[in-house]
Amino acid sequence: MLTHLSALIGIVVGVGSIGWLGPLIILLVLRDRSAFVADHARTTLNFQITMLIANVVAAVLWLVAIGVLLTVAIAVLVVVLSIIAAVAASRGERYEYPLSIRFLR
């Protein structure tokens, strides 16, 4: 659950591009202790990297004004899906983020 919520720190602090940092730290520190935690950390990290790429695209699209809406939509998506994933993890369920590219397996 912590891995999913740690990704929200970037939004809370106002630096949305660091959402990958919490899941990466959790993966590196706890991967040998729990396969469940490692799986959730990898899943969250994949999602956060995907959202980082989407934010780069949105930043480019700011030039044509659609980027503003896309940036807001991405932030809302990250918050909602991170909360859903945290709830699933607290129930002991596996959660796969939609729209996520699997960089890590």
Automatic annotation (TrEMBL):
The keyword Transmembrane applies. Pfam families: MamF_MmsF (PF09685). The chain crosses the membrane at residues 6-31, 43-63, 69-89. It comes from the Bacteria. InterPro entries: MamF_MmsF (IPR019109). It is a multi-pass membrane protein. It is found in: Membrane. This is DUF4870 domain-containing protein. It comes from Amnibacterium setariae.
